[in-house]
Write a structure and sequence with these properties.
CATH topology of chain B: Rossmann fold
Distance between the termini of chain B: 35 Å
CATH superfamily of one domain in chain A: PurM-like C-terminal domain
Radius of gyration of chain A: 26 Å
Strand order of the largest sheet of chain B: 2-1-3-4-11-10-9-6-7
Largest sheet of chain A: 7 strands, mixed
Shape of chain A: globular
CATH architecture of chain B: 3-Layer(aba) Sandwich
Structural class of chain B: alpha/beta
CATH superfamily of chain B: Class I glutamine amidotransferase (GATase) domain
Distance between the termini of chain A: 49 Å
CATH class of chain B: Alpha Beta
Shape of chain B: globular
Helix content of chain A: 25-40%
Structural class of chain A: alpha+beta
Radius of gyration of chain B: 17 Å
CATH topology of one domain in chain A: Phosphoribosyl-aminoimidazole Synthetase, Chain A, domain 2
Helix content of chain B: 25-40%
Number of domains of chain B: 1
Order of helices and strands of chain B: HEHEEHEHEEEEHEEEHH
Number of helices of chain B: 7
Oligomer: heterodimer
Strand content of chain B: 15-25%
Strand order of the largest sheet of chain A: 8-10-7-11-9-12-13
């Protein structure tokens, strides 16, 4: 039985993924010509997606040591010690290419993949967060209806998968920008919890057996990794995998039961590159060899060739290594859950990956060679567009009514309420969700030792496009600020660096700038990078996406300490910490209201940033405040409105009391300067005393919560006069756009 | 860690005592492949409400030794075919039907409600929400009858705050059955203020004619952990009162 015609077609495209130099290097190392199957296995593992060949040498230098870090980047998930014998695992992944072709299938399999990384460490997944990016959505522009379709189906895909497996989706962020036209970014973070002793040992010895468990292997997702390692073409739908959350749920329970019985010696999930990547990386990590028999694999359809079996990315599969004496017990567990499994091979001492088909050796490759692609050296240069943007002066905008501007800002989908999205996710299953989505600056989860874990994802493609270094620094500061607002001390960050084609020197320069920013911030703030991911080739025929590093900050709240929301309460007096500068470059005000790209983006003063965050942490911990909110996208006017909308109360704000070095009223209201916090307190005099005692701290008492009325006053005049119902109405824009 | 040990010891002592005092009075939480609120119900009952309950795998022969049951929420058998349809045809549910006929107590929550409807222990059907979207959030329900073992500690007409999370939670019945269940006072809770999923007559929970089997779409087990709306815990407390009183 021959393969369908398209298999031949895509695999040919795949072979092209190996460069001439890589083929020469391969033949030299093997001292012979590799056969077709060997080339396919290598091509899967050496794809940018699996090998990080362009980025490895840079991301290896990121600071990754800290007192909470047990296992840093490089494994399936980072492992953090949260005390009392408990560990927390965290992992970030994207599924951009597949989601752009098939938003439902792509986003749901993205969730599945990151969940299996958490199980691979022997921990139970307890939460999901997602960071999404689309082209602008609007009720009136039918030209943009594509992005509405993508948003709707991505959200449904994430929801259907997470809801079914019973892992709550507790938070995330969404950004809309024209550079994501015909495309989308879908980043998923998963958190796991376990006890220190339950984490998988990942050791094996000669004679151990290798079991493939879970979904059957089929022709779906053939070449997914290679597909993600080049420019996106919509026609490659066959490269997207099919999701089966029910099997994933069974896999979670069965694997955790196996770990509890202490019979699983090594464990790895199958993701990009399928068996090729999983088996080569696993045997290389163990420092041993694998003998694999392909005829044993349980398959979805007959007639699959060895190549298809080795590179299929069918979902919900894991490879488990157990001692032969435990084979019966693990089999019983898998059978209890109705999972299909087959023994596909044995652990050997030879250090090779040997693939047998019908008892004959079909491929024989040194694991170390497969798992370690030759690094690619990429040229870089500062892109010309940056000089252009920096020179560009903002035009003189015709003055808009400030109330209308505020309404427009609040209805901007990037800023507007995300309730339409998160109400489709079961965010409470598992009983750990301390704060519902939307009511605080970060998601907060209850841990089994009485402590709480805070986590927040942040990205800003508009800032990063105009200034990759300062933009990235801003994302780190913002993510850390957000978890600080809830009362958490940062214990680690994960980074997901998403760019266009790394072979383009302009893009590679931006990538290096982002890495430098992560290094600088993490070194200064002494926060380790505990995991990360690089995703290149995010391009369509329209060109590359804007550089989009997404940062996830993870923090710990000690036992008995308060967990703070952003909800303004009646009787609260409002304070601001931090200075507002005329930093409107890349702001939602320039981009969304005036459709202007350019100018200077906000810069982070690392020392001030740290001082302000430490002050805020002190305030939260000592219960002097009733709510806390970070000031970021949309500026101070938006941030205060958000707090008021959450609390369903109005407020009076004295704009002239906001500390600033701005040239315009719009600058004060909408500039996105970093390191600023908004605080509500019932004890304003006490707070003022504390804040005055902090050396060099810029702060001011700027207003107070009132009844339903909202007024912004400047130099004795009321410049914005509205009420909380009006603000709430505009803030619900996404719901109005999506529910037609 | 110490907390956990203390917790385990408390559970063990509780288990010992309850076996000696009321050998039968332990609630069985029936776990199907794909159930995902099982651990939440277990925690709410044992840890928060101090009601002894065990997780019981559906195929475990121990199931028949229990006399009262909670069928938790989740996606049993992946919601394949229809939510609850496959679980409704398992030997475990056959066993539950026998127990129900003997007057034993069964509470189905969310997917558990769907299973009870699918297996015929409760009238009506549960279909996709009117919005066609999964919905998660908090809502208010009103007590429509307190003459069931699940609501005896609540007051008639009382409004309680409770979380919902479902894709197929729209309860539908035809006019005839609606008239019949209304007449026999089988509607236990109704959504009030708004009807989140488009259920017939805003019905959120129903019981059978004998009043020993109840299905409820919202999630009372989520209430104790979040420290809001503790009234919803009275559903479990009423049940426990009935079993031990």
């Amino acid at each position: 039985m021959g393969s369908p015609y398209w298999i031949g077609r895509v695999t040919e495209a795949f072979l092209a993924a190996l460069t001439k130099e890589e083929l020469t290097y391969l033949s030299k190392e093997l001292k012979r010509e590799p056969n077709r199957l060997e080339k396919e296995i290598i091509a899967a593992e050496w794809s940018e997606h699996c090998s990080y060949k362009s980025s490895k040498k840079y991301i290896k230098k990121l600071p990754n040591e800290g007192k909470h870090v047990l296992i840093g980047p490089g494994y399936d998930a980072g492992v953090l010690d949260v005390g009392d014998g408990y560990v927390v695992t965290v992992h970030i992944e994207s599924h951009n290419h597949p989601s752009a072709v098939d938003p439902y299938g792509g986003s749901s399999t993205g969730v599945g993949g990151v969940i299996r990384d958490i199980i691979s460490m022997g921990t139970r997944p307890i939460a999901l967060l997602d960071s999404l990016r689309f082209a602008p959505i609007s009720k009136h522009e039918s030209a943009n209806s594509d992005s509405g379709w993508l948003l709707k189906n991505v959200v449904k895909g994430i929801g259907d998968y997470g809801n079914c497996i019973g892992v709550p989706t507790v938070g995330g962020e969404v950004e809309f920008d024209a550079s994501f036209a015909d495309y989308c970014l879908v980043d998923v973070v998963s958190i796991g919890i376990g006890s220190g002793k339950s984490t998988v040992r990942n050791t094996a010895s000669w004679g151990d057996i290798i079991i493939l468990v879970g979904g059957a292997t089929g022709r779906d997702g053939i070449n997914g990794a290679a597909f993600a390692s080049k420019k996106y073409e919509r026609k490659e739908r066959s490269a997207v995998q099919i999701a089966d959350p029910f099997t994933e749920k069974l896999l979670i329970e069965a694997i955790l039961e196996g770990i509890e019985s202490d019979i699983i010696k090594a464990l790895k999930d199958l993701g990009g590159g399928g068996l090729s990547c999983c088996l080569s990386e696993m045997s290389d990590n163990l420092g041993l060899g694998f003998n694999i028999e392909l005829d044993q694999i349980h398959i979805k359809e007959s007639g699959m060739s060895p190549i298809e079996l080795m590179i299929s990315e069918s979902q919900e599969r894991m490879v488990v290594v157990v001692d032969p004496t435990d084979a019966k017990e693990i089999g019983q567990i898998f059978r209890k859950y109705g999972l299909r499994f087959t023994t596909i091979g044995k652990v050997e001492n030879h250090g090779n990956l040997i693939i047998k088909n019908k008892k004959r050796i079909a491929a024989q490759l040194p694991s170390h060679l497969v798992a370690n692609a030759p690094l690619a050296y990429r040229a870089f240069k500062k892109p010309a567009y940056l000089l252009d943007l920096n020179r560009r002066q903002p035009p003189v905008f015709s003055p808009l009514d400030l109330s209308d501007t505020l309404f427009l800002m609040l209805s901007n989908p990037t800023i507007a309420s995300k309730k339409w999205i998160y109400s489709q996710y079961d965010f409470e299953v598992g009983l750990r969700t301390k704060l519902q989505p939307g009511i605080a600056d970060a998601s907060v989860l209850r841990l089994d030792n009485g402590k709480h874990l805070a986590i927040k994802l942040d990205g800003n493609s508009k800032h990063c496009y105009i200034d990759p270094y300062n933009g990235t620094l801003g994302c780190l500061s913002e993510a850390c600020r957000n978890i600080t607002c809830t009362g958490a001390t940062p214990i680690g960050v994960v980074d997901h660096l998403q760019f266009g084609n790394p072979e383009n020197p302009d893009i590679f320069w931006s990538f290096r700038q982002a890495v430098k920013a992560v290094t600088d911030f993490c070194k200064f703030a002494k926060v380790p990078v505990v995991g990360g991911k690089v995703s290149f080739y995010n391009e369509t025929n329209r060109g590359p996406i804007k550089p989009t590093p997404v940062i996830g900050a993870i923090g710990l709240i000690q036992r008995g300490r308060p967990v703070l929301e952003a909800r303004l309460k009646e009787g609260d007096t409002l304070f601001v910490i931090g200075n507002t500068l005329e930093e409107l470059g890349g702001s939602e005000y320039y981009e969304f209201v005036h459709n202007f790209t350019g100018g200077k983006v906000p810069r982070v003063d690392l020392k001030n940033d740290q001082t302000n965050r430490n002050t805020v942490l002190y305030l939260v911990n000592n219960a002097k405040v009733s709510c806390m909110h970070d000031c970021s996208k949309g500026g101070i006017a938006t941030a205060i409105s958000e707090m008021a909308i959450l609390g369903a109360v109005g407020f009076e704000l004295d704009v002239d009391r906001i500390p600033n070095s701005c040239l315009s009223l719009e600058g004060i209201l909408f500039s996105e300067s970093h390191s600023r916090f908004l605080i509500g307190t019932q004890r304003p005099d006490d707070l003022e005393n504390i804040l005055s005692s902090v050396d060099g701290l810029i702060f001011s008492r700027i207003g107070k919560a009132s009844n339903a009325k909202v007024s912004f006053r400047n130099e004795g005049k009321c410049i914005i006069d509205t009420n909380i119902h009006e603000l709430t109405f505009h803030h619900n824009a996404i719901e109005r756009i999506m529910i037609k | 860690m110490q907390l956990e040990i203390l917790y385990t010891i408390t559970i063990l002592i509780g288990e010992f005592l309850s076996h000696t005092i009321h050998p039968m009075e332990r609630i069985g939480i029936v776990v199907f492949p794909g159930s995902n609120c099982d651990r939440d119900v277990h925690r709410a009952l044992n840890h928060d409400l101090k009601i002894p309950a065990d997780l019981v795998w559906h195929a475990n022969s121990k199931l028949s030794s229990y006399d009262s049951f909670v069928i938790p929420g989740g996606f049993s058998y992946g919601d394949h075919l229809r939510a609850g349809a496959i679980a409704a045809h398992t030997p475990a549910v056959e066993e539950l039907k026998k127990k129900a006929n003997k007057g034993r107590m069964i509470l189905g929550i969310c997917n558990g409600f769907q299973i009870l409807v699918e297996c015929g222990l409760l009238p009506g059907a549960l279909v996709t929400n009117k919005s066609l979207c999964f919905i998660c959030g908090w809502t208010n329900i009103r007590v429509e009858t307190n003459t069931t073992a699940f609501t005896s500690l609540l007051s008639l007409g009382q409004t309680i705050k409770i979380p919902i999370a479902h894709g197929q939670g729209r309860y539908i019945v035809d006019k005839q059955i609606l008239a019949s269940i209304s007449k026999k006072n089988q509607v236990v809770f109704r959504y009030c203020q708004n009807n989140p999923n488009g259920s017939t007559d805003s019905i959120a929970a129903v019981c059978n004619e004998d009043r020993n089997v109840m299905g409820i779409m919202p999630h009372p087990e989520r209430v104790p952990a979040f420290g809001i709306g503790h009234e919803a815990s009275l559903i479990f407390r009423s049940l426990w009162d009935h079993l031990t009183g």
